[in-house]
Structure formats: structure tokens, C-alpha cells
Amino acid sequence: MTITKNSLVEVIHDEVGLNKREAKEFIEEFFEMIKGTLEEGNDIKFSGFGNFTLREKVARPGRNPKTGENVTISERRVVTFKSGLKLKNKLEAYDGKSE
Amino acid sequence: MVLNRSELISKLSSKFKSFTASDIDYSVKKILEHISKSLYSGDRVEVRGFGTFSLHNHNSRTARNPKTGELVALEKRNSVHFKPSKELKSRVNNKN
Predict the structure, then answer these.
(1) CA pair distance B94, B89, nearest whole angstrom
(2) Do B74 and B28 share a domain, yes or no?
(3) Pair B23, B55 in one domain
(4) Which of B5, B38, B80 sits opposite A47 (nearest CB)?
(5) Which among A42, A81, A91 is the nearest to B3, CB-wise?
(6) How many Cβ contacts (< 8 angstroms) between chains A and B?
(7) Which of A39, A49, B17, B65 is the most buried (most CB within 10 A)?
(8) What is the number of structural domains in chain B?
(9) What is the CATH number of the domain that holds B78?
(10) Quick check: A39 and B92 CB within 8 A?
(11) Residues A78, A54 contacting (CB under 8 angstroms)
(12) Which residue range is the domain that position B4 belongs to?
């Protein structure tokens, strides 16, 4: 099953007691603020959950896998996520298959 | 610069003035908790416009300590993988 924003809205509505419109607005803004923070070039840390960090990638030669053509992959900035210890430890308990 | 949870919460409070501090705090906690819980029950978490969290399984294997050359047994483990959305990818990359 895939979790989307709607299920987050339900959780916030049920457990915090915000109405659904407020919950939706809040969730949108929460993710928007994370995106805005990263866009400004700042990392973001949630202790226990994990960190979103920016990494600068240098340009490197690559190839278009479809056409075989050589191309240069330009330098760019990417977002990486590293899970925190608490989340990591909990995950060890899970022994199923991911999708 | 690094932003942490409490700084994000104070930014959210200045935007949602009618919400109580504890509602904001609790909501942020619940969002992260819900993502975590979904992951460790084996679900992917897809947040449109933001990105997708999924689990990657790693089988047990023997590896080497690169410094000493010693063999080390690594146990089977899971890790969280985050794939940023197209929007997030292009926004962090906007160098203008």
C-alpha cells in the first residue's frame, strides 16, 4: 500500500483534532517549508527521523542508455536522505519484503 | 546552514497563528511518526510534489574492513531510500 497526503490528513485530523481543511493546509506547508529550506541551500535535520542534506555533484561523462550517445552529465545539486538511528533501529525489526 | 525540527516548528507557528504551539508540535511529530510507522510496516510513503520514501532490503554478506582487510559479516538489513520529486529536484538545482 502506498501512503499519500490524504492519509496524513486523516492522522492529523483524528489525533490532533485539526479540521481536515486545516490539516491539509498544515501538511502542505510542512513539506513546502522543507522544500524551501533545501532550495535556499540549507540542510534539514529531524532528530530520530533523519536528515535531508544537499550534495554537490561534479560534471561527469555519461551515456544516453537508449541511444548510446555520449553526453556530459552537468554539475548539479541533489538531495539525499539519511535515516536517523531511531528509525534505523526500528527498521531492523521489520523482516518483510519491500515493494 | 542547518535547520532543525524546532526551527521548522517556529516557522510553522508564525504561519499558522491560530494554531496552538502544542497542536503544531504534535502535528509535526505525528507526520514524521506516520511516515516511520508506514515504512516499518513495509509500505512506501509517497508525498506528491515532495518525494517518495521506500525500503530497500540488503541481504547479509561478508565484506572487508577497507583499512585492515579483515573480513566482516554484515547482517541482513533494511534501509530507507528517499527519491525526491521532480519538483524538489529542479528546485534545489536552480542556480539562478
Answers:
(1) 9
(2) no
(3) no
(4) B5
(5) A42
(6) 159
(7) A49
(8) 2
(9) 4.10.520.10
(10) yes
(11) yes
(12) 1-43
B25 and B53 both lie in a single domain: no
Contacts of residue A58, defined as CB under 8 A and 6 or more positions apart, other chains included, come to A75
What's the pLDDT tens digit per position in B32-63? 999 998 988 888 899 999 999 998 888 888 99
Q: How large is the ipTM?
A: 0.86
What is the tens place of the pLDDT at every residue in A39-80?
999 999 998 899 999 999 999 999 999 999 999 998 999 999
Q: How many residues does chain A have?
A: 99
Residues B22 and B33 in one domain: yes
Whether residues B6 and B32 share a domain: the answer is yes
Q: How far from B56 is each of A30, A35, A81, B38, B81, CA to CA, in Å?
A: 26, 24, 13, 14, 6
Q: Quick check: A4 contacting B, CB < 8 Å?
A: yes
Quote the minimal CA–CA distance from B27 to chain A in Å.
Answer: 6
Same domain, B94 and B60: yes
The answer to whether the Cβ–Cβ distance between A77 and B93 falls below 8 Å is yes
How many Å lie between the alpha carbon of B74 and the closest alpha carbon of chain A?
13
